[in-house]
Amino acid sequence: MTPPPIEFLLYGGALALVALGLAGLVMARHLFRSILALGILEAGANLLLVLAGYRAGGVAPILTPGTLGQPMVDPVPQALVLTAIVIGVGVQALALALALRVHQAYGTLDVAEVRGRMEADTDAAAGLEPETSRDLPAVERPS
Amino acid sequence: MNAVVLAVALPLLGAFLTPSLARLSLPLGRLFGPGLLAFCLWLLWGIARALGDATAGVALGGFAPPLGIAFHLDRLALLFALAVPAMVLALWPWGGRPREWSLTLVLAAAATGLALSGDLFNLYVFYELLAVASYGLIAANQRPAAQAAALRYLLLSAAGSALALLGIALVYTQTGTLNLAQLALLAPVSLDGPLGLAAFALLLLGIGVKAEAFPVNTWVPEVYATAPSRLAGLLAGLVSKLAVLVIVRLLLVVFQRPEATQLMLVLGVLGIAWGELAAWRARDLSRQLAWSSVGQLGIVFVAFSLPGETGVLAGLAVALHHLLVKPALFLLARHWNGALEGLRGAARRAPLAGALFALFALSLVGVPPLPGFWAKFVTLSGLFAQPGPLCSLAAVVILTATLVEAAYLFRTLTLLFGPGGEEPRMAPHGALDLGTATAFAGLLLAGVIWLQPLTGDLHGIARQAVDMDTYVDTDLPTPRP
Amino acid sequence: MTPLDTLFILSACTLAVAWAFGRRPAAGGLIAVLYGGQILALAKMSGLASGALTMIAASPSFEVLGQALSWRFDGPAWFFALITLGAAFASAWFMAGEWGEGYRRKGGRLGLLQVALALNVSSMLLLLASGDLLSLFIGWELMSWASFLLMLSAGGVAVRWAFKYLIYALGGAMALLGALAWIHAQAGSLQYAAVAGLFATLSPGQAWTLVLAFAAGFGIKMALLPFHLWQGPAYAETPGPGSAFLGAISSRMGLFGILVVLVHLAGLDLLDRLLIPFTHLDARDLLGWVGAFTLIVPTFIAVRQHDARHLLAWHGIGQGGYMLIGVMQGDALGSAGGLLHVFNYATYQAALFLVVTAVVHRTGTADLNKLGGLVTRMPLSFLVMLVGIIGLAGLPPMNGFVSKWLIYRDLISSGRPLMFVATVIGTLGTIISVYKLIHNTFLGQLRMEHEDIREAPWSMLAPMLGLIVIVFLTGLMPGLVLDWIAPVQAALGLPVLDHSLGGVDLPNGGLDMLWVVGLLFAGFGVGALLFLAGNRHRYVHPLDNYAGGHFLTTEVRYHYSDDFYPGLMHLIGGWYRGSIQWLERALVSALDFLAQWSQAWFRSAQPALWLLGVTVFALWWVV
Description:
The complex is a heterotrimer of chains A (143), B (481) and C (623). Helix content of chain A is 64%, strand content 0%. Chain A has helices spanning 6-27, 31-51, 75-106, 111-126. The longest helix of chain A is centred in the middle third of the chain and has 32 residues, at 75-106. Chain B has a domain at 270-449. Chain B has helices spanning 6-24, 26-51, 75-90, 98-116, 120-139, 144-175, 180-190, 194-208, 219-226, 229-253, 258-280, 285-304, 308-335, 346-349, 351-365, 371-385, 389-417, 431-449, 451-466, 468-475, and strands at 56-59, 70-73. In chain B, strands 1-2 form a two-stranded antiparallel ribbon. Chain C has 623 residues and is mainly α. Chain C is built from 24 helices and 6 strands. In chain C, helix 8 (192-200) packs parallel to helix 12, helix 9 packs antiparallel against helix 12 (252-273) and helix 14 runs antiparallel to helix 15. The relative contact order of chain C is 0.08. At the B-C interface, helix 6, helix 8, helix 9, helix 11 and helix 16 of B face strand 1, helix 6, helix 7, helix 23 and helix 24 of C.
């Protein structure tokens, strides 16, 4: 059996990274895991973009006498990915800083707990009591 | 014409200079940002006047597209580019710290870039810049709830951006270019199949985070309730419209297909239903306004999903109306934050604020002759003109949502004007807030008086926006590659 | 500058004066004079009423979004405007004197009331003058919001009912807007001619949707079943003269809408062609029966009320049913009856509401169980209520009789015996409930706390007496009003009624009110002669009596007012289980549930889950 072509592995790997990242974001119960999953997701997306630049049999259009053209790939996606990586790094750093602050304030990074504390704080700042269930049915039946 | 780049570059430069200037002299730092924005406003106004009805392309750095990045100046782009410094000036955080001024200037620069850019990756970069500025601004007030909200927003938005990047990758693999004008030429052939639609869906979901589109709008009530009201007004009023503008550009230029408009319609309808229903049960004003803006943006999505010139006209009308009304409401809500029950009789102490709230509520609900009515009428008429049950269903959903919206807005109003008002919190609004809100109300009423020329202008803008031949000719001067 | 422009300018002036000076009771007289001036301006356009002119246009016209907006008066507009301005004039006159000062002293917002009234009048004139469907909608919305403002002006309990009205009214407005947008999408234009042309080309499904949307939109304002729950309490809680105005004409704007759109533009033959499946009924029958049930159900709800204002307000809904039945008959006699009923009803309903307000002003209560015997202290008010009640019940010699007779006659001759029985049941309900009203208020035993009250002041009596003079005169000579109705019928495409001054001349039994009233008075005259000539009468004090061996004394209450008509209430009580109220609350509760559900979406702990779900779904849908 012939080994699968390299593109299959690479594209599959990139997509798998994306899927892992998304799954991690969705299933994470700890905010730090969400941030890690975000990093993986961005890595997968960036990898896919780089792979999009591959040119089979590409030759650099720079000719010097005596040498053959060097193999090359499309440089544009690599430039784009550089930008995207930098943006991603910056955002992740900001995310970590925010997570640190949240941990300092709430003492936990559990997703559900943080959400609950955030809602409770917002409600308290507005002077709202927490919502309670009704004691009686909403509508009396016709007599 | 090349000076239009200053509208993006100057606020960025100003953002980096502001903290140092503020350390030298605080009053100078405070006035530096607004001064820069006023200059940008004047600059853009001059360019818009000079351009008139024509379009122009600006090749950055002299590199002609499609190899270089271009700014595309048409009436639609300049309209929103003008709105950016105007709105940021109106909602400037005068009482904040220098870092907030810097971040607001970055927001202004990124927003202007979003309005003007003609290259897909350039749009992505400006979008990310806008996002980062907004994360910083939301978290700036140090309250733990705000920082938790900013973190949750960040996670959602960054995930969306990664998906958008995937979409861009798909576009690049299919067409080999990221210049919008060249995409307009290549898209009918290259992006025709399911991969093109997948690219649109990914881009829609990614950019839709800022545009409060349906599945990705869960951040809205948390952020608007914890962020300062001026920032909430800026995000709800200006930033969301620019995100919608980007999506509309993509729709008009690249993805002109019935499935794409159908997707937008469905997401819009779901957004309307979910937003207005959630607003019905809101117990404080900020969250009620937040959900209301989700609903209104759903209407904007539905309006822009109509094909052709009608769609752009209807969407522009609803979007511009919301751009005026929502920030003004958030300004009024700045002082009226807190539980709705605690606002009993607040309008008795502050009659002008109460009257303004009533005016904006009437316009949101769509009472003639206010502009909100005309916007809704054009949208509904356009929806009924389309064949098929989906558009008629969307129209019925809009009508029902208007009823629900009127119910909760006027429930709030009857609370405001009701008896009560002895609490010490019921002091009148700040003069700046009230003055800005009055200015917005004045603009709204001016829209009523000058309705005919205004609709004529909007028709012209819409016509130019759908004209793809002009678009391509502007950015890709002959010979084409 | 056309006479219509003059009317609009006068109306705007009245609004400005009400805004600037309305809170001063002294300005009430000026405002009443301004309304009178508007009536004079309307009289200048009487060419429309005599049929000499068909249309008077207003100067301003705009073009928005490719639609031309124009305003003009024709026959129907003139007729309804006369009623509007008459009701406003009477209310303003009533407000101008002692009532306004008293209201102000009790903390009421007189300025708001004056402004709301003036705004109502202006918006109604705009609505009546509309020259195309878009300006009709604009006028409709402005009028709805003006009514909301008027209902709000009392504050307190009234706010809750005004809010309920708002929800109903906006629901109707959304139905109208949907229909309007659909017509615009199909026909491209909202001019009346284009709309009429569109109606002719619709498929039955489309026509049904439009007819139901318009009927619902206009019917909510008229409080047709099942949208009747808001009107009774909302009109009752409005401050006195405001309720007189609202009760007289405000709901009839819904009838105007139905006349313009369904009768004139769509045409009654279109309604005839829309059949309800599995029955032999068509849309016209449906509307007629809706009118019949609107007549019966709220009238018997009125019998159960023990607040005089609520009783009158519930009656207003029922009489609207009469008008709809008459109009839906579509021939000369029936439609004339329906249109005449609009005028007649306005006159005596305004008079009745004003009398009840005068009684409240003097005694401080409108509770029928706490009044009685006021005829001795307020004889002229009693006369006003007596005449008003005879009119409302539809008995000769008052004008209500003529319009009801026309409708009965038409129902019998067109072969609708069931609907005739329904209208008779409605009239029966009206008669018994108005008797309850006058008995509990004016007849019977005077209460001790009311020993010292005086007659209502002349500023209040004058408009009331003026109204009942109109009631009597138009009952005596209905031809006067039928003259005005003929151009209305002509403009709407209905056959015109041949009439004389006294009534109508029909081959198998017509009506001549001159003879009827003459005979009635002759009969009374003979009776009076016999009575006075015989001189066999002796005045007996009401308490010169005994029961169970005891003589009656003042402080004990013998006046029978609680649980009036117990037998009837026992019979019909089982039917009034509040089913439609339950439906209303169930709808609100369902909305609440949906809202809670959608809030839960926004509160999800893990937002990215939904993002993933939608991404997967979108990709699947794409591929």
